[in-house]
Specification:
single chain; alpha/beta; 26 helices; 19 strands; 15% strand; disordered N terminus
Length: 651
């Protein structure tokens, strides 16, 4: 039996729900026909489209069972995916998917079914839309709230070049909470490009609304009769002073009584909805009408995340993504004591936050829609009045923390490294410039693995290190992480502690709220000739390399301020230094060491082990580190290149 288990690194938690999934690819004659000749999709009748959608859903279940990956979102948009490719002349017409978690059905339908087994693996399909992968992937995504801006750019480009092209953006009710989405909505309402935005509302963020009456009126507003009447009335009433404005206000007030579209209408969009997003015939007829309308159009559909897979429907957060599924193992005949797993860094953070909050009521926890992923579920339950999930609004989260710090609170902002990039101006201007007491708990720092370059956290040391007033810590294990978080929180100013995705080393955790001395490193191993300066979680690789070349290993711990005295003492007794970090070499911790030595007028042979000047592909986390040259072998090779030949032979 094959069981589906919620991915513990997804937005949800493990709830233990299981369901049998197909182990043999289902029969899909309609899908097979479309894959042989894509244009057949546009010739299908309504009943055939419904059958195709069901085959596509079953094929998706089979594919994800074998590879793991994002799960619930794709199941929820199967009907929408079929309808879009049926109505629009893709890829000439553009479909821009926001974030991209929901695009597995799109990938299957557009000719990549045979490659789905390689999903998120080295040299395999990306887990997100990727322009180099297919002409149907019109825009590369991974972060949220970008689709409307990108689609608007495409619509305006088509207009400038005189190209007859339809442009559609598909955005979720979570992604539309991002400020960038509203910036694009406001601009499009002013510029009036011919484009369609589809809000895929799976009721995870936007509240419930209406019922049968709203659906009834939505069907009226989407009908050809109504739209023709509306456009014809506009042409007539525009010539009567004030008449069209009055008619438009009357229409908006009527919609506002039964539907949540008034806000979009006020921004300049023609709103239709909400519709049942799983009613494929209605979707098709609505899209056909809206495709021919001029100006910015907004279609609101309701879907069920995880549609067609019962556990995912019951727990859409937990089944946002799943692990690769394995056959259930037979029960062991003998009781064997399993080695306990090391805690995940996100859980170490979550426990520290709970322990700290129990002792100090100034603690507040903030997250931009990453409660589960950041390990804050227990904290949110225990301290609901001191927990703030601001939705997908990273910029706001940073300045919110700044405002709280101004007036007596001590905020902790839990945020992924890749998402902190979106709040960079706020971090500089609103936090660091004012030297405010904000603690940044930066999760998913370094190479995250299968989610790839859109989610790797490989730039934070570079973009943080150049900001005045910042203290930056890079722990090498989970116990050090807990102590650094406490140290950063007590520091009266902006402090950032960055830690990776996944499990720690198994280091024993100090249950007390213990601190470390800021700016002080620790010599872990004494050797000769070569000194390895480690920043972060690659300490194990540094130690493996050191055993082979008899090198000194220093766990530097702090990127800013550096332990300058320790660095100078190492130069006195070693021929060369090697810095090691899971961050871009450009501007990273190693660059800080080089800058210090240059300013001190000290001559030293120095090499940097870090992320090269490239985006690292998606693969397993360990494979990513090999691709980036972050292994013990790479450290040894760097040492060999630095030492004189006679010393290499001696080693």
């Amino acid at each position: 039996m094959i069981k589906a288990i919620a991915d513990p690194d997804s937005w949800g938690m493990i709830h233990g729900m299981i369901e049998e999934l197909p182990t043999i690819r289902p029969d899909t004659p309609l899908l097979d026909n479309v894959l042989r000749q894509f244009d057949k999709l546009r010739e299908m009748e309504a009943h055939e489209l419904v059958g195709l959608a069901e085959e596509l859903r079953q094929d998706l279940l089979y594919s994800v069972a074998g590879t793991g990956g994002h799960f619930g979102a794709g199941l929820g948009v199967v009907e929408l995916t079929v309808a879009l490719h049926h109505v629009f002349n893709t890829p000439h017409d553009r479909i821009v998917w926001d974030v991209g978690h929901q695009t597995y059905p799109h990938k299957i339908l557009t000719g990549r079914r045979s490659e789905m087994g390689s999903m998120r693996q080295l040299e395999g399909l990306s887990g997100f839309p990727k322009r180099s992968e297919s002409p149907f992937d019109t825009f590369g995504v991974g972060h949220s709230s970008t689709s409307i801006s990108a689609a608007m750019g495409m619509a305006m480009a088509a207009q400038q070049q005189g190209i007859d092209r339809k442009v559609v953006a598909v955005i979720g009710d979570g992604a539309i909470t991002g400020g960038m989405a509203f910036e694009a909505l406001a601009h499009a309402g002013h510029a009036r490009p011919n484009m369609l935005v589809i809000l895929n509302d799976n009721q995870m963020s936007i509240g419930h609304n209406t019922g049968a009456l709203a659906t009834y009126f939505a069907k009226i507003w989407a009908s050809k009769t109504y739209t023709a009447f509306r456009e014809g009335s506009k042409k007539i009433l525009e010539h009567v002073r004030g008449a069209w404005d009055l008619a438009k206000r009357t229409e908006e007030h009527m919609k506002g009584m039964v539907a949540p579209g008034t806000m979009f209408e006020e921004l300049g969009w023609h709103y239709i909805g909400p519709f049942d997003g799983h009613d494929l015939p209605q979707l098709v007829s609505t899209l056909r009408v809206m495709a021919d309308l001029k100006g910015p159009q907004f279609l609101h559909i309701r879907t069920i995340k995880g549609k067609g897979f019962a556990p995912a429907e019951r727990d859409p957060i937990g089944y946002h993504a799943i692990n690769k599924l394995e056959p259930a193992k037979p029960a062991e005949t003998k009781s064997i004591a399993a080695k306990p797993k090391a805690p995940k860094y996100q859980d170490v953070f979550g426990q520290w936050l709970c322990d700290l909050a129990a002792q100090d009521d100034r603690v507040v926890g903030i997250t931009p829609a990453m409660c589960e992923g950041s390990g804050m579920v227990a904290y949110a339950k225990q301290y609901p009045d001191r927990f703030f999930d601001v939705a997908i609004a990273e910029q706001h989260s940073v300045t919110l923390a700044a405002g709280m710090a101004c007036d007596g609170l001590k905020p902790v902002l839990a945020i992924y490294s890749t998402f902190l990039q979106r709040g960079y101006d706020q971090l500089i201007h609103d936090v660091a410039l004012q030297n405010l007491d904000v603690t940044l708990a930066i999760d998913r720092a370094g190479l995250v693995g299968q989610d790839g370059p859109t989610h790797h956290g490989t730039f934070d040391l570079s973009y943080l290190r150049c900001i005045p007033n910042m203290v930056i810590g890079a722990p090498s294990d989970e116990d050090q992480c807990r102590k650094m978080l406490q140290t950063g929180w007590l520091y009266e100013g902006p402090a950032a502690i960055r830690y990776p995705r996944g499990e720690g080393t198994g280091a024993a955790l100090d249950p007390n709220l213990t601190t470390l001395e800021i700016g002080k490193g620790h010599v872990v191993r004494h050797g000769a000739e070569v000194a390895i300066l480690n920043f972060g979680v690659l300490l194990d690789q540094a130690l493996l390399a050191a055993e082979r070349i008899n090198a000194t290993v220093v766990d530097m711990r702090w990127v800013k301020p550096l332990d300058e005295a320790l660095i100078l003492s190492l130069i006195e007794n070693h021929h060369c230094l090697i810095t090691v970090e899971e961050n871009a070499v450009a501007g990273g911790a190693g660059s800080g060491v080089a800058e210090f030595l240059a300013q001190s007028g000290v001559m030293c042979t120095l090499r940097h082990i870090g992320i090269p000047d490239q985006f690292v592909a998606h693969a397993g986390q360990g494979e990513c580190r090999q691709l980036a040259g972050l292994t013990a072998d790479d450290i040894v090779a760097a040492a060999d290149s630095m030492l004189p030949r006679q010393q290499q032979k001696a080693l």
